[in-house]
Structure to design on (274 residues):
């Protein structure tokens, strides 16, 4: 399959981002918002009505009007987002699946600034992929009480991450732009959250550090380190500016899944225990 060059996928995403952030006259913006809700089958039950949002981007990145119930049991891990469980399983020989039959290297996914020692800790651990479609709530949250020690921005392409493209491009997650968070639970169990960019995902934003800039003209990996960033389970981490993918990686014997593959899930639902 012919692939789009990096500059084309980035340019398309920037152009769409410019449109999505533009505030049109109220009557026209209402039409745009309602049309998007209808085409994408967006359920606004827990949100403000479509006409409330001054730009399409504000609709994409909408806040919940009705708070979700967060399980308080410290042993449970919750879904960080609304989405679809596209694949999960055991990391073997540093490989995980983006979808059945298509694997990627966990070491390459994590990039150059994650230590070899920590990459080794993931062998025989658990991976879990969440696909966020354009209809989903685009904000993401802490899956447990956690601290963040490092964030790595890895520039790349912005291929779509829907199932059609996941079956066309090997290791698509490794080719796309992404931000890797190195995280620890309160008992110092290591896990990673990888936020994968996609076509029309103009930005990935993070509440704890607004200096992390994605979809910019930069070909070098950037590493940010932190001493004392802690979040409680359910606390907001940031948002995508369109649908995309979150990959979670857990070290060996630290996560027991309680969900099924190929099901829809909501932020706040229990996905496993530690």
């Amino acid at each position: 399959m012919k692939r789009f060059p990096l500059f084309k996928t980035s340019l398309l995403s920037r152009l769409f981002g410019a449109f999505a952030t533009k505030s049109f006259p109220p009557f026209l913006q209402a039409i745009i918002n309602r049309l998007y809700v209808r085409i994408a089958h967006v359920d606004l039950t827990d949100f403000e009505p479509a006409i409330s949002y001054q730009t399409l981007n504000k609709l994409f990145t909408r806040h919940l009007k009705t708070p979700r119930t967060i399980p308080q049991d410290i042993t449970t891990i919750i879904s960080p987002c609304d989405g679809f469980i596209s694949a999960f399983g055991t990391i073997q020989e540093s490989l995980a699946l983006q979808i059945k039959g298509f694997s990627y290297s966990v070491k390459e996914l994590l990039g150059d600034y994650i230590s070899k020692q920590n990459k080794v800790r993931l062998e025989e651990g658990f991976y879990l992929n969440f696909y966020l479609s354009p209809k989903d709530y685009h904000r993401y949250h802490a899956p447990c009480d956690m601290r963040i020690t490092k964030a790595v921005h890895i520039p790349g392409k912005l291929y779509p991450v829907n199932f059609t493209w996941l079956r066309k491009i090997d290791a698509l997650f490794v080719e796309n732009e992404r931000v890797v968070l190195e995280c620890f639970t309160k008992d110092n169990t290591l896990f990673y959250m990888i936020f994968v960019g996609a076509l029309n995902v103009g930005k990935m934003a993070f509440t704890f550090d607004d200096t992390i800039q994605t979809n910019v003209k930069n070909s070098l990996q950037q590493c940010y380190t932190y001493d004392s960033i802690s979040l409680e389970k359910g606390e907001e981490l940031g948002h995508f500016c369109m649908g995309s993918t979150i990959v979670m990686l857990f070290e060996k014997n630290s996560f027991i899944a309680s969900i099924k593959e190929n099901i829809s899930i909501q932020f706040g639902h229990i996905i496993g225990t530690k």
